[in-house]
Amino acid sequence: MKYYQFFGLLVFLFTSCGGGQEQSQDQNQAPESMIQPESEPETSTEAVAVNEAGKKVYDQYCLVCHQADGQGVPNAFPPLGETEYVNGDTDRLIGIVLNGLNGEIEVKGQIYNGVMVPHNFLSDQEVADVITYVRSSFGNNSPAVTADQVAKVRGG
Amino acid sequence: MRNIIKSSIMSLLVLAACQPAPENAASEPESTALVDDGELVLGDGFRATVVIDSTYKNARHLVVHQNGDIYLKMRADDGNGVLALRDSDGDGKVDVREEFSSINGTGIDIHDGYLYTSSKREIYRYKMNDGALLPDTTAEMVISELPDQISHAAKSFTFDDSGNLYVNVGAPSNACQQETRTAGSKGQDPCPQLEWQASIWRFDANQVGQTQQEHGYKYCTGIRNCVAMDWDHNSNSLFAVMHGRDQLSFLWPDYFDDKQSAELPGEEFLQIDEGDDFGWPFCYYDGFKNQKLLAPEYGGNGEEIGLCANKKDPVMAFPAHYAPNDLIFYQGDHFPERYKNGAFVTLHGSWNRAPEPQQGYLVAFVPFKDGKPNGKWEVFANGFAQVDTVKGPNDAKHRPMGLAEGPDGSLYITDSVKGKIWRITYSGTPT
């Protein structure tokens, strides 16, 4: 533990004990002061804007299953980092986001057999943003997807 | 190890700085002084020894035979379903290891000279051989044609003292929505999943060739999924701990925010009598109000009780999404007297508190008296995750899964990440 984190923890402890109840609920959680901010790679302003828009969509619709770290849940929801599903064929990936996915798939050597619901209520831009975000996060480094590509897949 | 020392220091600091603990059943309770013992953090006088460091991921339940042999159930997609382990030289570590059975799944137990083991749709048994590690390799099918389902498919089971076998048949969905896990989708009413699923079924423990439709008896209903079940021989009653529904804020953002979704509903500890209805999918349990409330799929808004007033309440609840995956009532004399007839529960740890940090990767103890909880639940063993903050379940180095009591009263715990097995003993002296 780095010293500044330790002192941060002490500060947290002595400032948060008035109520008791709130502290106890958080007993298993690291205090805010211990959570390291994730380092952002240097990118252009435009790419950052897409990432922020994409992250917003991700946090609202995807994170609940695929998790904050994009690594999914064992035996339930597959990881999004460094997989062919995410970094390969973009039309297939757009199709999965729009139409959902049913049945058995293999991701990184593991079998998943769950249900991903359709997200066709998202706009072409939102789908493009979230796919671009996922393809450049969680260890991925694949090119962006445009709203035109999404429209083309949506139109069949 | 360093993490654990840090965790221990943090725990002690928290305990020292923040007494007394709050009066809130749904929050994590205080523990007695915690000591660092290998990876696991246990109370004074308890010690964890490693029986085997790794077997397979997806290790599930286990049973320990009267001679100390261990049978570990596995849920691998391929490979064998049971791992038989023996410590032949008595040094506390496994040195004989045999695999058998093609039946992958969760449940395993020994009853009347047979090893019972379940897949997603069947329960089989193998005749034990006196003194031999491996049973007869011919499987007898005890129950077949249980529902084929993807979600909540584990057919965990337990036995009473009257020749009956109880089988968990979980709900195949989160909340019986018309469109599964879809925001704003109403619940099906009636919910057809209640006919054969979302219930615990009773069978004859000693009859082979049974099916659910011909021989099964629906013992209770309205349960979402109870991987953790045990018969309490002390009060002569079935108990189970339920995985509650999830994604309240994702599915119903008008009524619940992410914080509420992370903290609701409580994971219900159920005392089950014949004919009981615990309310799923119409109700969920609010562990802060200690009340069953109407689910938003059926018109609820986080306040309304409605028909849930007539559903049976749990005897207590764990915090939301902790994922109770095994339950045993302690019958031994090895642990201190207060543990006798109390309940140990493995909490596999959450995935569905996101975007809040994940929690609950621990083994809990609930003291019991006369068949009822006698005091708050306690953290019995912690330190499984080996990280300070679990952002997603893949961060956890271990996740506690199965529980068994050994013939000497020691407690065995399995881990589903790498199949580690610990044995917990009590020496009476702080370590």
What does this structure look like?
- The complex is a heterodimer of chains A (156) and B (431).
- With 156 residues, chain A is mainly α.
- Chain A contains seven helices and two strands; from the N terminus they run H-H-H-H-H-E-E-H-H.
- Chain A has helices at 3-16, 21-25, 45-66, 84-87, 90-99, 124-135, 147-155; strands at 101-107, 110-116.
- Chain A has a two-stranded antiparallel ribbon with strand order 1-2.
- In chain A, helix 3 crosses helix 6, helix 5 crosses helix 7 (147-155) and helix 6 packs across helix 7 (147-155).
- Mean pLDDT of chain A is 78; it is low at 1-41.
- The interface between A and B is large, with 37 and 44 residues.
The major beta sheet of chain A can be summarized as: 2 strands, antiparallel
Q: Could you tell me how far the N terminus lies from the C terminus of chain A, measured between alpha carbons in angstroms?
A: 54 Å
Number of strands of chain B: 32
Q: From the coordinates shown, what is the CATH architecture of the largest domain in chain A?
A: Orthogonal Bundle
**Radius of gyration of chain B, whole Å:** 21 Å
Largest interface: A-B, 37 and 44 residues
Oligomer: heterodimer
Termini of chain B, distance in Å? 16 Å
Overall average pLDDT of chain B? 90
CATH-assigned fold name of chain B: Neuraminidase
Number of domains of chain B: 1
Tally of discrete structural domains of chain A: 2
Structural class category of chain B: mainly beta
Estimate the global geometry of chain B from the Cα principal axes.
globular
General form of chain A: globular
Order of helices and strands of chain A: HHHHHEEHH
